């Protein structure tokens, strides 16, 4: 039995969490990159809390404490409950277990993931979907547990990371983390997905570096692309994913957040970024189509299915339990 936490719960450090694991929801996701979504969908598990504080966080209901509520949405789960959630995702067709924003909960997640399935033949591949604001020694705890890393590389400009993520050390920390992930995965260029129930027959990349383009801050994107080209491009199993879905969080929904960049990525900005991909010789990866209005995609974790139904099949929710 899970217990949804109430306003009186104690919260810990900057992530808003304690050493216990709190989850917001678990669902079959179809909006990830093709090898992640596969045929059956990705088994996404959204962890409550976050060690960054992006001003434009679309998941702000679960990633941070609200001034008036003192905490993010979520329910505490035990190892046994976590395993039940993983198995429920598998039964609904998930091709992998996709841990979303668990950087602040690595010790407990590493422990729970080790026992989530009964054995190697039963297990799904585990994906680590994070901001890359992680130390190498933290990532070491995931060695032998994670089958693929999906780190963000949000910016290499510490002025921007201070302004938008309240983390001036983000650029150096994220670069070091991604290089660590490459090192951890170097003997595993492409993971087999033979164990996946739907059996796509394709390969799961070892590392997908994701970058969200911010409107009006293209020089930041250019620096990220250059760094990727110098350090990651051409390595087998390592790919880039460019995302253009940036949407300001509506003021009414997130009045407690300082404003992020206004507007969305323009057509000219999109074309400029594509030109840089050619200029830097980046060929392996994924590029989202322009998204003129993604406000409808903003999740609402008050709902049993926080995401649009075409993108997500809910399996478990912090307040509703199994669905
Ligand atoms: S890292 Fe992700 S979950 Fe955390 S605040 Fe930033 S956008 Fe939100």
Structural commentary:
The chain is globular. Mean pLDDT is 88; it is low at 191-201. Helix 8 packs parallel to helix 9. It has helices spanning 34-37, 60-63, 79-91, 106-114, 136-140, 158-165, 170-184, 218-231, 267-279, and strands spanning 3-4, 22-29, 42-47, 75-76, 97-100, 126-130, 148-151, 190-192, 203-205, 207-212, 238-243, 285-287, 312-317, 321-322. The chain has 323 residues and is of the alpha/beta class. It is 26% helix and 19% strand. The protein has 9 helices and 14 strands. It has a single domain (20-322), classed as Alpha-Beta Barrel (TIM Barrel), CATH 3.20.20.70. The longest helix is centred in the middle third of the chain and has 15 residues, at 170-184. The two termini are 14 Å apart. Strands 1, 2, 3, 4, 5, 6, 7, 13 and 14 form a 9-stranded mixed β-sheet that branches. Strands 10-11-12 form a 3-stranded parallel β-sheet, with helices on one face. Iron/sulfur cluster (SF4) binds at residues 50, 52-54, 57, 59, 63, 101, 131.
Outline of the structure:
The chain has nine helices and 14 strands. The chain is α/β, with parallel strands linked by helices.
Shape: globular
The main pleated sheet reads as: 9 strands, mixed
End-to-end distance: 14 Å
Q: Helical percent range? A: 25-40%
Each distinct ligand: iron/sulfur cluster
CATH architecture: Alpha-Beta Barrel
């Amino acid at each position: 039995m899970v217990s949804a936490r109430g306003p009186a719960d104690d919260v810990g450090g900057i992530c808003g969490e304690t050493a216990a694991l709190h989850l917001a929801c678990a669902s079959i996701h179809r909006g990830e990159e093709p090898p992640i979504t596969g045929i059956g969908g990705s088994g996404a598990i959204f962890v409550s809390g976050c060690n960054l504080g992006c001003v434009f966080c679309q998941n702000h209901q679960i990633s941070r404490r609200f001034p008036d509520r003192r905490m993010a949405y979520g329910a505490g789960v035990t190892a046994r409950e976590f395993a039940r959630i993983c198995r429920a995702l598998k039964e609904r067709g998930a091709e992998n277990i996709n841990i979303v924003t668990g950087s602040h909960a690595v010790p407990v997640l590493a422990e729970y993931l080790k026992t989530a399935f009964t054995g190697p033949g039963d297990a799904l591949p585990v994906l680590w979907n994070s901001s890359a604001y992680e130390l190498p020694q933290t990532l070491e705890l995931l060695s032998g547990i994670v089958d693929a890393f999906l780190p963000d590389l949000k910016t290499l400009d510490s002025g921007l990371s201070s302004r938008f993520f309240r983390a001036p050390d983000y650029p150096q920390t994220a670069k070091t983390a991604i290089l660590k992930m490459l090192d951890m995965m170097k003997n595993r260029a492409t993971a087999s997905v033979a164990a996946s129930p739907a059996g796509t027959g394709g390969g799961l990349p070892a590392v997908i570096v994701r970058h969200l383009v911010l409107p009006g801050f293209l020089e930041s994107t250019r620096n990220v692309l250059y760094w990727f080209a110098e350090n990651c491009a051409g390595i087998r199993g390592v790919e880039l994913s460019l995302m253009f879905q940036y949407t300001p969080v509506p003021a009414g929904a997130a009045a407690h957040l300082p404003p992020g960049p206004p507007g969305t990525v323009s057509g000219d900005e999109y074309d400029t970024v594509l030109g840089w991909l050619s200029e830097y010789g980046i060929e392996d990866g994924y590029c989202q189509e322009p998204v003129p209005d993604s406000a409808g995609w903003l999740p609402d974790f008050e709902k049993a299915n926080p995401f649009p139904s075409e993108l997500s099949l809910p399996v478990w929710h912090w307040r509703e339990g199994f669905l």
